[in-house]
Amino acid sequence: MPEPACATCRRKSRRCDRRRPHCLRCISKGLECEGYPLCFKMYNVKTQTSYKSRKAQRIGARRSASSSANEEDTHEGPPTRMQEAMLSIQLNDLSTPAKGDVEEVHQLLAYYETTICSALPVPSSSFVNPFKSYILPLAHTDSGLLNGVLGLTACHLAIRDRQPNSCMATNALQHRLVAIRSMSSLLIKEQRTGLSSAEEDIALATVLTLVLHDICECGMSTHGAHLNGVAFLCSRIAMASSDHSPLRLFLVTALTWFDLLRGFSGAEKLAFPPDTRKFVAEKAALTLHTLFGCPVEIFEAISHMMSAGKMFWAKDIDTPEFQQLLDPIHAQLQAWDPKKGHYPDEDVEWALLANAYRHTAILRVLRFPDPWLIPCTDNRIRSSVEAILDSSAKMSWHSPYFKRLIFPLFVAGAETASPHQQRYITLCVDHIRELTGFTNDSISELLGKIWEDRRKSEDCIPWFEYTCSVNLQRQHDYLFF
């Protein structure tokens, strides 16, 4: 005899997956699972229910009985991961024609698992794919995160092949709004009663998915609200003395990297404190390297540079003090040998990617403290730009590492005045777009503005003026992945 359905599914006259303690179909719908009827004794204790509960159960039973002629309940064995995902996305009641919606969500989850999960990280034999191994199973347990995953996937499909799909774009927006509302509820609960460890993981995973959605859609995050909202949570995790799961290390590392990346255009945008970045460098160097291709030594140098830049921007230190902090960072970057770095495996292209990040950091340190001081034609600028382009030219066009050159290539493009270098960078950015399916529209538009104004003016306008300037009415976070 099959186990009874939960009260919510019985009340809505739909098939229940009978998962305990809560039905996954209720979770995916964003409903509160009302539990299962207690029609048996436990530990020889009679369980009593209130009049309202008994009445609700009787109503649910009558509705379930009336629909039994059209629906035969069966109790199958434990589902596989993919089957469990499919069971958890029943978005509409069976009283409406929801077959098409369910099939579409099945397709979105399959596309996420096979395509997006492959496009995001750099494959390595020593590191599992976190988007497939961590995010997808976690999404089965929370409707907000599930909708975040569906929104990201629908967005990726909508812009694929450069032919916007209006229906899929609408679906992406709908799923995204559900994820944002769910995230807002978690933050409110955090303020009132605090979050459990599992809820903290869900909150961080949801924000990461929303940030990736921004990157996929346009490459910009409006006002950086998502990252700002969980900066305190990542800091609290970093300060905790307990051991951290691989999932938690991955989430904190990814969000910390994106915060540091947006600080490249303006150090005042940094929301994560230095202690969080120190935690990532000490505890998650492999995760950092595999996800983004940046060696921990370069990550630490950028972190110290940006921390000093934020203090300088806040007028906590003056120009001479700032320069004293920058000089050893610059010397360290110049002396660091990528051939002697520690990498996830023996592939020689790790060193090429590391060298590109090294010169990206050098270009940034040269723009401190006065971004207008050094022209693009200066040999120091040209040398680092050429080094980044040489690293990309030495890397196989179809290498999985090539997609991680997107940020170094952007910085090189923003610092060059050479038309043939600009053309080569455009070709590389377009190729990465094809590799990942992410549009990178903000990169192309930003570089186009920089190059056009540079042709019209003799002054070398720093690219930060287009992303983080007092002359801009609206400032957004430019993110690259």
Automatic annotation (TrEMBL):
Broad class of the protein's primary localization: nucleus
GO molecular function, one term: transcription cis-regulatory region binding
UniProt xrefs under PROSITE patterns: ZN2_CY6_FUNGAL_2
GO cellular component: nucleus
InterPro entries registered for this protein in UniProt: Fun_TF, Zn2-C6_fun-type_DNA-bd_sf, Zn2Cys6_DnaBD
Protein's cellular compartments: Nucleus
Region described as Disordered: 54-79
Keyword match Manganese: no
Keywords: Nucleus
Domain Zn(2)-C6 fungal-type, residue spans: 5-33
GO biological process, one term: positive regulation of transcription by RNA polymerase II
A Pfam cross-reference name: Fungal_trans_2
Gene3D superfamilies the UniProt entry points to: Zn(2)-C6 fungal-type DNA-binding domain
Protein name: Zn(2)-C6 fungal-type domain-containing protein
Organism, scientific name: Polyplosphaeria fusca
High-level lineage: Eukaryota, Fungi, Dikarya, Ascomycota, Pezizomycotina
